[in-house]
Amino acid sequence: MQNRPVIVAVGRTKFGEHYGKEPEKLIEEAWLAASNECNLERKNLEACYMSDCFLPITNKLGLEEGFLSELTELHVPMEVTRSFSAALKTACHAIQAGVYSTVLVGGIEKMTDRWDKIRDDLMLLEDPWSYYAGGTTEANHELMLRAYIKKYGINNENLDKLYNALAQVTIKNHANGAKNPYAQFQRKISLESVLGSRKAANKALGLFDYAPVSDGAAALILTSEEVAKKMGASPVYVYSCNSATDYLDYSARDELSHFIATEFAMKKALQTSKLAPWDIKLWEINDQSTMMEMVSLEDLGYCPAGTAWKSIAESCPNAKGCYVVDGKELYVNMDGGLKADGNPLGATGGAQIYEIYRQLTGKADQRQVNVDGAAPKYGGVLEFEGFGTKAYVNIFGRE
Amino acid sequence: LSSEPIERRVSFLGDRLRASRCQICGKEYFEIRDYCGKCGRKSYGKMDNIDLFYEKGKLELCTLIDEPTNKFSKLERFVYGMVSFHDGKVRVPARITDQLLNKGDIDLASLEGREVTPRFRRRYSVGKSEVVPTISLAFTLADEYYPHQEYKVIQPTKDYDLPGIVGYGVYSSRFRIKDGGIERAVPFIDEDSVTAAVEAGKLALIHSGLDSSWVGKVYAGSESNPYAVKPIAAKVAQVLQLGEQDGDLQGVDAVDTEFACKAASSMFKDACALVSYPRSGIDYAMVIGADNSQAAPRGCPGGELDAFVGYGGAAYLFGKKDVIAEVEGWYSCTSDTPDFWRRDGEPYPMHGGRFTGDPAYHKHVRKAASKLMEKCNMKASDFAYFVPHQPNPSFPVRIAKDLGFKDEQFMPAIQMTKFGNTYSGASLVGLGAILDIAKPDDRILVASYGSGAGSDAYVLRATSQILDKRSRQKVNVKFLAENPFIEYVDYATYRRLKQGM
């Protein structure tokens, strides 16, 4: 019998701009918050898994493990991955295998330290050939949206409806962000400002459709079930950590209007967790853009291909801030998503899991979602590396 | 983030758009692959190397980029998307080039589905001391200024006694400045003398129908090589795959030449001699003259040139089979006359003002042309055409008249009024315009001029093959000069474009 990995505590920093802070200060803050929450001493940690997408580039830091060791005065094994979900996955494997019973999973990014070059870095890492041809990250989102519109023959009033639906995605995420004290943007936005930003950019997607560049850190303590029970903390079980991979070069992919990596990862995640899609009514989706949130609803299997915009348009806005698909409520990005909460790449997944942990344990304050009169039983996280090059689907449950 | 080895690999693949095709399932990949992802191990060694360099693509999807990444910031606004080849079998990311987009709506839908031609261009901006990055992931619409032309290898059939021109290509950009009664070509921001040399060479190969592997030597003459040290000819040889290909090496001799505006014309005789020397093992040699002609801004020292400089070039293939114009004779003269110069490290040339005329241009051209006519026992009336070097609109007219030529003999060759002075390419572009219209047995006198100073004169005689090959060439000098897709720019834009990436 495998050990079940359990999250016993989570911590994070506010996302946004941390001009005066070194990267290590951010991870320290997140780790202290998590360890305070479960009363854990650092000497109890048997290993650390940390993620950062490109601290070696933004902050000229190699061997991030070293500064983590200085910080914690620990000499335990430490490994670095590129995304929080990847770190979690590795940590889960260690717990499941019985190698460790208490580990730290952390994520960090300091993107504003290289604000003037960040778009070049991002695009070059995401897809070098597209970068060489002049591409930008935003251009890929625009192209996918055009591919989607073409594929499903959306035109005339339906096209307006789709653009409006995408606006509702960011309006909802900002409304949620307004209730999240850690969010980078804690204010509501209006339909006019979304449409205005698109008009100013002369594009289908404008400033308000894209997640920002952020600094931030997140951390969680992962233990075996046995240790979690001894600690008496509120446990959230990791049901599945699955991922799938697709080509680096977006233009070389067979499918231009969907992220097939998401489909593969979700399929596997449902198998592992033995859950049906609609058992999970709470999701944190990697909304690098509003388009990405919309397409992901289809890729995860909640809406048939080519219809997510209809479901969004028909159910938003509503007081609960949820999507309604065939009469069923789906809560997405209650922390504001990448759009409002922020997107410090290596820490982004950590913030997503932070939100799921808070929601499942009923501690999400004014953002708390109620499913059948109680806190949700299950929650899912979709995290990407690159433009759908890697998709991670993590499923969490209270029991 | 880049380095010499990365630069080498990206250019090697990207300049030529090298690709692979699986012999088993037919799946195609951009970049060279040793096996097919779909067929796996059994496809190892069964991948055909193909490339998309001469192909026509289709712009499948596009969007507008007006906030480019840092290295593309000088392009300001451009259309970006993806292009497919071979009925969608392979797709590549694509930048649409040669477009000056003004603020306002761009009808992306009208671009999607259009056919496009890959263009060899500078990739993006880099620091002045770095390797100049290039790529062919830039495209233009195939039904506009630069149409797609098929490259078909045709086995030569007829041997000639004398060596001569077997094919040629003239290239100039889509942009012009109209100024002082003449038009001058302006490069797009991602063009330079290297990209013009490659384009001209590509057009010459298409026109000649020669297999690029048959070319044993390439000479590239230019005054505006972006490098003080690193040959343009090497880039041409690699991109056009001249000589026998062996992995990433081309079995060809490539060399840059420099003698102001006669750097290329000087090599005509060397190319002829090389293909005639029985032990050289070289059947064909390519001579290219191309320049993004430099001039200081108006009002600055040397700025007088700014009224005349252009952009473009031409490539000539020499051989002894299927010759379209035999080289019957030549004469060159040289003197140490400093009428025009550019010191190393200086961006713009200086000149001797009024002394660039009589003691320089006229003296040398007159000497070379008249001496050659004397040598060949010919007079002006024996020639159908006279092609003088053309640094401005007046010099070539005066020398032609001095030598006894009539308007109809030399005016068709005066192309500087349409493309500007293309320095090393100037007399070559003029010659191209004449070869476009010459009839069999027409005799042509060419007299180039290079400051510093010297002149090369040649007597050419057109053969019957000049007519046979003409239909292979959509892009000729007239096509470039009278193209409806030419875009005119103002002085400020001209200076900005000329400055490049």
Please characterize this protein's 3D structure.
The complex is a heterodimer of chains A (399) and B (501). In chain A, a hairpin with a 4-residue loop joins strand 10 and strand 11. Chain A has helices at residues 23-38, 55-58, 64-72, 84-96, 118-126, 128-132, 137-151, 156-177, 191-201, 225-231, 260-273, 290-299, 308-315, 337-341, 345-360, and strands at 5-12, 47-51, 78-81, 102-110, 215-224, 236-245, 282-285, 323-325, 328-332, 378-385, 390-397. Chain A is built from 15 helices and eleven strands. The relative contact order of chain A is 0.19. The longest helix of chain A is centred in the middle third of the chain and has 22 residues, at 156-177. Chain A is 41% helix and 19% strand. An eleven-stranded mixed sheet of chain A has the order 3-2-4-5-1-6-11-10-7-9-8, with helices on both faces. In chain A, helix 8 packs across helix 12 (290-299) and helix 8 crosses helix 13. By secondary structure, chain B is of the alpha+beta class. Chain B has 13 helices and 24 strands. Chain B has helices at residues 4-14, 108-111, 193-208, 232-239, 268-276, 357-375, 395-402, 407-410, 416-419, 426-435, 465-470, 477-481, 491-499, and strands at 18-22, 28-30, 47-51, 57-65, 78-85, 90-96, 115-122, 134-141, 159-171, 175-179, 182-186, 215-221, 244-246, 249-251, 253-257, 284-292, 311-321, 325-334, 340-341, 350-351, 385-388, 443-447, 454-462, 487-488. The interface between A and B is large, with 32 and 40 residues.
